[in-house]
Design goal:
Elements: H1 2-22, H2 28-33, E1 39-45, H3 50-65, E2 69-75, H4 80-93, E3 102-107
Parallel strand pairs: 1-2
Antiparallel strand pairs: 1-3
Length: about 110
């Protein structure tokens, strides 16, 4: 079980780093939210979600390791304003906001 969780975290981290390096074009909303030379990771989570609880320390460590990374966490099950942001971000990226944790990486591509 431990090996499986570590493998999942490794795959997630590898995919995230690859995504950060490739810097794909972003929807207008996301570009407006990003700042120059900064990577913002939006972490939409739910209070009581065990998968969210496992992702949180990983993202915190990522932000500590890479100073250009900022993690913004939004609890969406009990905070309506955060849920609205989640819906807007999902619409900008073209997916349905149906599950947490959802992690989005935003860079300013100019």
């Amino acid at each position: 079980m431990y090996f499986r969780q570590m493998r999942l975290l490794f795959v997630l981290a590898s995919g995230l780093l690859l995504f950060l390096l490739l810097k794909p074009p972003l929807p207008v909303l996301a570009r407006e939210l990003a700042t120059e030379n900064k990577v913002i990771i939006y972490f939409f989570w739910g209070d009581g979600c065990p998968h969210c609880a496992r992702a949180k320390p990983f993202l915190e460590e990522l932000a500590k390791t890479y100073p250009e990374v900022e993690v913004r966490a939004y609890e969406v099950w009990y905070v309506d304003e955060n849920l609205e942001l989640f819906k807007k971000m999902a619409a900008a990226y073209g997916f349905e906001p149906t599950a947490v944790p959802t992690i989005l990486s935003v860079t300013n591509t100019g």
